[in-house]
């Protein structure tokens, strides 16, 4: 896959995709490139007005693109259920679990979960489970791609303190949520293999990409200096969103993607370069941790993957 770019994405005509957080950054690029190749794409966005603006930009940049917008707030399980219930059509080939939050001050979701764990992991866990019947029915080529981060290396998931009640540290919480993304992918892949399903579960990370993700927390807190620091980092050190989205796009459309693959920039660069299979922390490959997180996630969200019951 050396030198792989968006121009190498195979024809996606006849395929249907959902991309969470598609109104900006990596999600926008991912949705645009899938639509450019012929996929029918649902932009699942918390802010419907911004989603509509994004859809207009995609149509302008990729004439003929078939995109639509649907509201989805991953911080509210009622919204997740409403999105899944309202998803149009019987077919779903690609679910891109892209949306996320990073290093926010302590907060709670509508359901009382620590915000980063609730949005980055639990919201996507619930969404995937609710859309699973359509993904399984799509047949060969269907995939669930969950976007993690190389920052996952800095934090494990503590099943005894998923909401960080024992002391909140924003970057530790973010790292935990990104480890949870990989543990979820690992356990989902295991269950798909056991069920003999064609659906593939893979993950990706963008490296260091120039998006607004890191500036959200400084804006929330009114820290202009921190916001400026993040902007400088994006300008001089980060790669473009177009480059950062390539690992996700490869995981979604590449020809040799296997269960539980993890794609990102080369290890030596961490945040730059063409997509390839990426190194990951050993704990994200733990069957015991994966099963434990899965059981906790089912209990907390009330969503059970009945089609893959073991």
Automatic annotation (TrEMBL):
Top-rank taxon: Bacteria
InterPro entries with a match to the protein in the record: NAD(P)-bd_dom_sf (IPR036291), SDR_fam (IPR002347)
Keywords tagged on the record: Oxidoreductase
Keyword rRNA-binding: no
Gene3D superfamilies linked to this entry: NAD(P)-binding Rossmann-like Domain
Family per record: Belongs to the short-chain dehydrogenases/reductases (SDR) family.
NCBIfam families found in the cross-reference section: PRK06197.1
Protein name in the entry: Short-chain dehydrogenase
